[in-house]
Design a protein that fits this description.
The structure holds 2 protein chains of 2 kinds.
Chain A (H helix, E strand, L loop, with lengths): L4 H17 L3 E2 H8 L3 H11 L14 E5 L2 E6 L11 H17 L4 H15 L7 E3 L9 H10 L1 E9 L4 E15 L2 E8 L4 E6 L3 E10 L11 E8 L3 H6 L4 E7 L2 E8 L2 H10 L4 E5 L1 H23 L1
Antiparallel strand pairs in A: 1-3, 2-3, 5-6, 5-9, 6-7, 7-8, 10-12, 10-13, 11-12
Chain B lengths: L1 H17 L4 E2 H7 L7 H17 L5 E4 L8 E4 L2 H4 L8 H12 L7 H15 L11 E2 L5 H13 L3 E5 L2 E13 L2 E8 L2 E6 L8 E2 L14 H7 L6 E8 L4 H6 L2 E3 L4 E8 L2 H9 L5 E5 L1 H15 L2
Antiparallel strand pairs in B: 1-3, 2-3, 5-6, 5-9, 6-7, 7-8, 10-12, 10-13, 11-12
The chains are: A alpha+beta, B alpha+beta.
Chain lengths: 308, 307
């Protein structure tokens, strides 16, 4: 659907301070930044030549140069600064600053600066009742990990694996950090196996930055297993938290049949066990056998403690 | 036609923004380019222009400007309500703002983040450092829904959506995030309720005109969230195999029992969650007390293996 005249007017007014701060920017780049076509940007800019302050003499019109696909602003009139942030933009900034605050929780100087900025922006931001109750664990190694990603260096880490319930040493090449379900995750290549691995940042106990800059290397495909489960409708949380690995989801009478692409067999075994009896394995049978064996061992323990 | 209207809207905004005093309608019609035609036509044109600009968040102030003639009104856009103040942010603050907005790259809030970034980059040009591109927030929620909820909260519109298989009509009061998920707090049938946004299965629409309800002054979002959480803590005693259940060992103290087992004293708020965290460790963790919790866990396990 074509933009309304008002939306186009706002975009055109937003273009002026942006070009003022980014002189010599191409219309191609502007089109990418403003998510419209290059032709639309050119049409918007053509319109600007005719706009300005009452009087509309050459001294009162917005003045810009537009040549060979490159634009600069000579006189923005009153449009020399960006519009104030909208409410939805403020929500994004507020949430983002809260994440940054948690990431830098152990760095008092940065924390103080973020808090000052937070107060500056949000002292009068009560129009939309919105709060963030995410509790994200920070990591003292965030700066090192960040440096390793940017400089393409390796990391030697000591990791407490929740699925294996063990502490292991890993040599990895970190690729990126994501925030998912309120936790920070590090996506990496595991150097010995050349497979992709994901680590929760707050479970990294030690971290050592390698001096060596790493060359390109080929990645082996991780071994992935398709697992079909029945999930009770009361366990929607399980589906929501793992939506990124769910390949298929079908509603059945009292729940859902889901197919997950799983690379960590230990994780899915424990996940099914911990949600008993609300998640059941449909296939593979080897997984349901493993879950059943663990339950048998667990019940034996309860019988043992009952006897003693 | 569209070009003419866009031009007129820009010129009207610039005129009201540049003026140091409230402009009367006749001043606007005589000086702002684009207002042509009969008086009735340009009056209608002006009313529509004002409404459209206000609808997009531009605050056009109106004020009676002549004490003798009450119907003589003036119009103005205050600089502070329209633009970010000059030198509002230091270079370092602009960097933090860039990082805060960049976190949402590729996520459900990508569009809102992108428009915020355009404004931030209009403050201080492009900002690039090794920190700025990290990390990225992943979420699966549909940002268009979030935009509709923001609009409904701002304008006091009733929302309609399908939730747990039923069509719901809700007065939206507030929004919060917890553990990466979004929740809407709203009134339905005189009761305050939580709605997890990922569970809204059919399209969410605005189902009333603006101002359809008044939010009670006593509503406090933080208090509502706090009240809806359990503050009670219960105690449990566990047996934990040596060198196992490392995550539980980080949280709770243990006492040495024998070569195979330690005893752990724990507290919890939610029974289901606690049973899940014990079952995660399989045969390495056993609930000793309370007895009813132990019985529940055993019953769950028997139910799973017996189908």
């Amino acid at each position: 659907m074509a933009d309304t005249a008002a939306i186009r007017a706002l975009r055109t007014m937003d273009l002026i301070p942006f070009i003022l701060e980014n002189p010599g920017i191409s219309t191609h780049e502007l089109a990418l930044r403003f998510s419209v076509t290059q032709k639309q940007i050119e049409d918007d800019l053509s319109l600007v030549f005719l706009c300005g302050l009452p009087g509309y003499t050459p001294y009162e019109l917005i003045d810009l140069t537009f040549e060979d696909g490159v634009v600069s602003v000579i006189d923005p009139q009153v449009l020399d600064r960006p519009r104030k942030f909208s409410n939805s933009e403020l929500v994004v900034i507020k949430l983002g600053l809260q994440v940054l605050r948690e990431i830098h929780a152990d760095q008092p100087t940065k924390l103080a600066k973020i808090d000052k900025l937070f107060t500056k922006i949000f002292s009068d931001f009560d129009q939309i009742p919105f709060v963030s109750k995410n509790v994200m664990s920070s990591s003292p190694f965030y700066a090192d990990i960040s440096k390793a990603i940017y400089q393409r260096r390796g990391l030697k880490i000591q990791y407490q694996s929740i699925s294996k319930d063990a502490v292991t040493e890993r040599v990895i090449v970190p690729q990126g950090i994501t925030v998912l379900n309120g936790n920070l995750y590090l996506h990496s290549f595991d150097l010995p196996t050349k497979e992709e691995r994901t680590f929760r940042l707050d479970l990294i106990n030690k971290c050592e930055l390698s001096e060596k800059i790493l060359e390109e290397f080929s990645l082996q495909n991780s071994k992935e297993l398709m697992v079909e489960l029945w999930v009770d409708q009361e366990m929607l949380n399980f589906i929501e938290r793992n939506s990124s690995i769910i390949e298929e989801q079908i509603k059945v009478d009292n729940g859902f049949k889901v197919i997950l692409k799983v690379s960590n067999l230990e994780w899915i075994t424990r996940a099914v066990l911990s949600h008993a009896p609300y998640i059941k394995v449909i296939s593979p049978t080897s997984l349901s056998s493993e879950v059943n064996e663990r339950i048998e061992r667990l019940l034996e323990n309860y019988a043992f403690f009952a006897r003693n | 036609m569209s070009n003419q209207k866009t031009e007129r809207l820009i010129n009207l905004t610039l005129a009201l923004l540049a003026s140091k005093r409230y402009l009367t309608k006749s001043e606007i019609f005589n000086t702002v380019a684009g207002y042509q035609g009969s008086l009735e036509t340009i009056e209608r044109m002006f009313e529509r222009d004002k409404d459209e600009l206000r609808g997009l968040g531009i605050d056009i102030e109106v004020k009676g400007i002549d004490p003798l003639f009450e119907d003589e009104q003036g119009y103005l856009i205050q600089e502070d309500s329209f633009q970010i103040k000059p030198d509002a942010f230091s270079k370092e603050e602009v960097l933090y703002l860039t990082m805060a907005a960049n976190l949402w790259h590729g996520s459900a809030l990508h569009n809102q983040a992108k428009s915020a970034l355009l404004k931030i980059q209009s403050l201080n040009g492009p900002t690039e450092t090794d920190d700025v591109n990290l990390p990225v927030i992943k979420s699966t929620f549909d940002s268009d829904q979030l935009a509709v909820i923001f609009e409904a909260m701002r304008n006091h519109n009733i929302l309609e959506f399908t939730y747990k298989g039923e069509l719901r009509r809700v007065k939206p009061y507030g929004l919060y995030t917890r553990d990466g998920f979004w929740y809407l707090v709203g009134e339905e049938h005189d009761l305050l309720k939580n709605f997890k946004l990922i569970r809204i299965t059919k399209s969410l629409v605005i189902a009333s005109k603006s101002g359809a309800f008044t939010k009670p002054e006593s509503f406090d979002l933080n208090k509502f969230i706090q009240d809806s959480q359990s503050s009670e803590r219960y105690q449990a005693i566990l047996m934990v195999k040596k060198n196992q259940a490392l995550d539980l060992r980080k949280k709770f103290p243990v006492t040495d029992i024998d070569d195979e087992w330690d005893q752990m004293s724990c507290s919890y708020s939610y029974e289901e969650e606690f049973i899940q965290s014990v079952l995660w460790h399989g045969s390495n963790v056993v609930i000793l007390s309370p007895e009813n919790l132990q019985k529940k866990l055993i019953a769950k396990c028997r139910q799973l293996i017996n189908g």
